[in-house]
Each structure stands twice: as structure tokens, then as C-alpha cells.
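Narrative progress, year one. The postdoctoral researcher (J.K.) led the effort to move from monomer predictions toward full complexes, under supervision of the PI. The following entry was the first complex the group processed end to end, covering 889 residues in total.
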Amino acid sequence: MLKERNQLKFEDKWIHMRPIVLKLLKQEPVSQAEWHDLFYDVHLVCLWDEKGPVKLRDHLHEDIVQFIKQAQKRVLAQRQEEALLKAYIAEWSKFFTQCNYLPTPFRLLETSLQGKTSATSSSNIQGSNNKKNASDESIVRKLMLDSWNESIFSDIKHRLQESAMKLVHAERNGEAFDSQLVIGVRESYVNLCSNLEDRLEIYRENFEAAYIQSTEMFYRLKAPEQLTTNGVQAYMRYADAKLKEEEARAQRYLEAGSNNVIQCCVKVLVGNPLSVLLAECTPLIKAGETERLNLMFRLLERVPEGVPPMLKELENHITQAGLADMEAAADIITQDSEKYVERLLELFRKFSKLVHEAFSDDPRFLTARDKAFKAVVNDTTVFRLELNTGRNAGGKMVTPESKCPELLANYCDMLLRRTPLSKRLTSEEIESRLKDVLLVLKYVSNKDVFMRYHKAHLTRRLILDASADSEKEEDMVEWLREVGMPADYVNKLARMFQDIKVSEDLNAQFRISTERHDAINIKILNAGAWARGSERVTVSLPVELEDYIPEVEEFYKKKHSGRKLQWYHHMSNGTITFATNGGKFDLDVTTFQMAVLFAWNQRPHDKITYENLRLATELPDGELRRTLWSLVAFPKLKRQLLLFHPIVNVPKDFDEHTVFWVNQEFALVKNGKTQKRGKVNLVGRLQLSTERSQIEDNQSIVQLRILRTQEAIIKILKMRKKISNSALQTELVDILKNMFLPSKKMIKEQLEWLIEHKYMRRDDDDINTFIYLA
Amino acid sequence: MFTKVAMADENDNERMDGDNQKLEKMFTLKKWNAVAMWSWDVECDTCAICRVQVMDACLRCQAESKKDSYGKQDCVVVWGECNHSFHYCCMSLWVKQNNRCPLCQQEWSIQRMGK
């Protein structure tokens, strides 16, 4: 037995093996016994014949090649494209199926062939590691595929490809065919590849390349044709549809994971006619054609240089439309802050909707929108606010700023104060409008101006107890904090609320402590939280008021020590009863108005000259004129409280001999009927500052900006030690943007100032680099 | 003689005011909302130690108050015998190192505290 085995020769066994192998290749039925025999024979040959494995492989190879040659003949016999493909795919799929079966009996052959190249021990480990991929990497399989590749594929691949591409082309033109044919060709490309690192190598270099080329050719012809015959609008729909179609087609016919075909389509369909497409952008934005814009956006987004011009167009359009809108309505909106804010918001909503619908809120478009909004909000052509500091008479002009923050603050005031507007609206409506204001405020670059006006309005509301809803007032402060208003601004507002509460407690205590004073309320406030300008206005109070002063001061001294009180009579106010011959009216008045009116108590029917009123009240000239004007020409009154002679049109034309007297016929007129009783508010806008302190106020804003800029520069330098001019500017704007936008000029001036004062210096080698000096 | 009469008149008027305001006067006071501002009665507005206005909380208190309720009122002012004034918080830290007034170098002793 052993001897017999020793003499076992490959040639003896191959005779039995060969027919079975051929049957397998041809996909003819193989009995179980034959199948088993093959295993056994392979086993014997590999085990007992030293040269067996090599010989076995060579013979196997030869037979495979033979088989393939026959298959090739069968395929090439077909003349027609479709038939050729069909035949090829049929042959190939047969062959490929066998690739999975034929190697199985030859496993042992593989191990013995491998054993020659690597040590047995390691091959065991390798074997177990690679078990999973065993069939993929089997030598016989590789042999089969390589043979197919060399002997049939190389010869006819061009014909195959061409045929496949012709079919795809036909499909593009709307003809139906069996897509399986193209898929089959593609699969053969992929499966043929025995390169383990890159399985798609053959496929990519041949099939995909051909596919891309034919696609490009197709659309290179079609696209311009479509564009010229059907126009841009239709073309965009065409391009969009075709891109989707090609994506679907690529999914069907190509391997996943490669985007080259679509990129090629995009280049031909969108990249080439880009300028024609872009020219359509502005008209579409103007017409608000969101659907078409969306289509355009989807198309242009696919090419890198497509979106930026669209952004530019959008920004330009919003800016222009916004400014045109503002200018057209200039007459109304400069006067009426409600109309202004509403107009602005309407504009915002319109364009936000456009960006949402046309560009799906793409961040890049949102940024473009925001940029345009900023330009509209901060524009100074319709109206401007000049931070007149009183110093720029000497030719030093201050750059004008948008009046927007002032109007926004006015609008807030209308919502938060008891006004017809705030009464008309529900609490939710007020809240949403306040949020709207905050939205606009986001775009305002001089936020510090808003805060100044807002604070002034708040002061008035708190002092006159005119808030519509104190809860909402405090909410607003928190919202301001949330939108990033600098903490020190917001804290000041919060402090005012706190202080007013302290003052209310104090007032309650005061009223308990005395019995006769139910006619007086006191507000004693923290000067640090409320007052800005130091200026007070002198006034000689009517005795009725003057009497209270020492008592309040006495009371306060008992409560606190180390404090001094300053009376702010320009802020105080009250209610007086005015009795005429026929009627009785309650008048809400300022203390100044009170001082003027009380002058008539001693001589009710006298005409008093301006000069005598001045002596009686001791009010400064400007204040007296203003106060008198509010009594002779109060806008809401049909019949004025005081009459005067000679008639003038502006308060500054009063002279010292102008005489004033009480209008004994005073009455309220409602619906054309005179009323005998009633209440009038003559306070108007409570005056917080005089002209001089207005200038002081402006100065303080400018001064504060200077300090903030210096502070921020030092902060940055402390951190960076050394920084280039441009980087410094960027960081500076970033720090300050919640307060104001520093002008280039101011930054430069402050840099010079800091250098002069040795806080920093310029780099010796580069004057545009700054170095921090500790 | 003339002046005497005038004064008598005025006295009369005043008495009548008190008794019977509403009948006599054209304008009578119903309510007065008086506004005043208080501030520390100091010679210098700024605390020489922390360089913050004495009306505002000192630097430390400002930094801390960011965490809890803002605008606390208890950062008071202190006056020394020399009449110089500082935030009480600032001064109490200062005297631990140097018991002299930072402005005039006199020995520090508290004259009074703000309340």
C-alpha cells in the first residue's frame, strides 16, 4: 500500500481529475461521487507527488485558458451590440459562479503551494486569520480571474465598453433597454480585479472612465442646445432634473463611493453656463421667486464659485431695497418710531422669509442677510444722530451715526409705558414686539446709544410711575442681558429697579412718620445709579412745597448718616387742582410748571410779565421759556392754560415784557363739547437734562467709547504681548461690538495715545506690530 | 406804614390758606412727588484704593456681586479722622498692611461710617 502510494504520480491521477474539472467549468452536472473523488485526488497528489502541486496548477491553468478561449469565440460570434453584451454577460456570469465552486476541491493545493513560500507554522496562523477571505484570495480563483482578464477581457473590453455606453446613451435619449446588461458588464469589471489593495482598479480605469467620457460628451452637446432653445428658466429645471437623473443612473450602473460622474455632470451642466445662470439671480430675487431661486441655489451650490456671487446679489438687493424703502417712507418714519420699527421689521420678515424659502436658511445666506440688515439699520442717509460734543466747532467733525437706536428705544418706551399703544396690545403682543426690538438691536452698531436712551426712558417711567407692567420692565432687562448687552450697562438698569424699591420702602416709612403729609411722596435715589450730569436747576419753590423740604431732610438724616441730599426738582412733579369760574380740573404738572402757575395764586387775574415770573420762580432763562411754552402751547389742548401777548411762534421770542395771564375760560374739549371737570397731564416728556447736560451726555458717550477702546486694546495686548495691527483691529471690534463699532480713526488715535503714554510701542522692525509694555 | 399793611395782608392770606384752601386759591396742591438724589458726603468722588467711584460698589464687591444678586447696597463708605474717605471694604483690607491713611499718611482711625 505504502509502496503503491510512493509511486503515485500526478499524471496518473490527472486523467481522472480532468473530466471532472472540465465539467465543473462548463457547469455540467457533477455527481457527488465525482465531487468527492476530486477532493481525494487533489489530496493524494499534493501529499505524495513532490512536484504534484505545481503540475496540478499548470494543468488547471491550461484547461481554464482553453475554456475561456471557447467562451470568447462564442461571445465574439455576436455582431449586434446588445447580443454581444448578452452573450458576454451570460458567459461571464457562468464563469464567475464557477469561480466560487472550482477552488473548493483545491484547498489543499493552495496550502501546499503556500507552504513553499512561507513557514508552515506561520501559514497556520495566517490560514486561520484569513479563513474568512479564503475563497476570495484563493489561488485557483485568482488563476481563473486572471486568465479571464488576460485572454478574453483585454481583447474585447473596448467593444464591451462601447456597447455598454451606447446603451446608456440610448437610455439618456429615452429608449428603454435591459439595464441588467450594463450592470453585468460593470460587475465583471469589478469582480475581475485581483488587486487586493484596490479592487476597483480595473473598473475605474476602464469602465468608469468611459462612462464619464460618454456622459460629458452627451451633455456638452445637449446643455447649450437646451439653454438656447428653452431659455434660462427652463434650462435650470432641465439641469436639475438631469442631475437627479444622472445620480439615479450612476447609482444603478456604477459602483458606490465615487462622485466623479456627478462632478463631471455638474461641471458641464452648471459650471460652464455659470455666468448665464448668475445673470438670472438678481431678477429672481427682485421678483421674490423663491421656488426658482431655490432651484438655482440647489444647482449653483454644486460648484464652488456658484454661491458667493449669489450671496453678493442677495446682500446688495436687501440693502438697496431696504434703503429705498426707508427713504420712500422717510417723512413718516423719522417722526414716528412705531412706524419706523414696524417698517423695519416688515422688511426683516420679508427677507428672512425669502432666505428661508429660497435658500433653506443656509448659514451663508443668513450671514449675507444679516450684513445687509446691518447696512440698513446703521445707514445715515435717512436720518442721523450727531453725537454733538460741543467741541467739534473747531472743524473736528464727528461721524454721524444712525438714529435707529434712539427710535428703537422710543418704541420700547411706548410699549413699556402706559400709552394708547400699550393699552391696545395684550401682554403677549407687547412681549413679542419687545423681542422684535431686540432682534433689530442685534444689527445696530452703536448699541451704547440705545442703552443711553433706554435708560433715560426707564428713568422717566420709574419716576413718573408710568410703567404699564413692572414685571415686563424687569423681563426686558434680562432680555437685554441675554442678547449680550454688556453687563455693566444692564447691571445699572437692574440697580435702578432695586433702588426704586428701596425708595418705595423709605417713602412708606416717611408717610407713617408724619401725619400731615398725605400730599407728598418722596423718591430718594442713589445718585450713582441714576444721575449722570451733575447739573441741577435752581428754582424757587412755592411755599406749599418748600415747607416739606426740611422735614424730609430731617427724616432722612435720622435714617442715614454720611449722606448728602440733592433735590432734583426738574424731575419732581405733582398734581394740582385748578379752579376756574366754571370748572375744576386736576392737572398733572412738573414742579417747574407748578412754580410758574402758583405765581398767580396771589393775583389770579393779573397779567404778569416774563421778567416778573423769572424773579418769582428764579428759573434759568431757558427753563422758564420752555416751561411757559408748555403752558401756552401744549399740543394736546384746544384751550390753553395760559394766554400771552404779544404772540410769538417759538419760546425764544418771548421777551421780558411779554405778559402772561391765566385763561379763565380754560376747559377741556371732548368731541366738540366743553367739559367742566377733568384731568390733564401737562408733564409731557419729563425733562431729565438741560441743554448743557445734553452736551455733557454726548461727551460722556464719546469719552466712554475712548476709554473702552483703550481698555480693550490693553486687554488684548496684555494677553498677546505682541500683535499685528490687523489682528488687533479684529479682536478689538469683537470685544467692543456689543457696545459700539469703533471707528478706524478712533482706534488709531487711541493707539497713538497709548504709545505716547508708554503703555505699548511699535515693533522696531515692523511698524504695524505692537508690543505691550508692562 | 405801607409795608406793615402789606405784611398783615400776607399773614391773613396765609392763615386763610390753611383753613380754607379750596375756596380761595386758583391752584391748590393735591400731590407732590419730590425727587432727590443721595450721595456720600465726601470730598473726593473716587476711592483712592480701588479707583472706583465711592457711589458705586468697590471693585471686589462688583466682581462678587456678579454671582449673587447684583447691586447690593452694603458697600458703604468710611471716613477717617483725617476726613479722607474710602470704601469700607477697601480700607479694612488696607489697614491690615498699613495702618495709615493712603492719602495723608496720618494714622488711620475711623471717624464715622456711612449708613
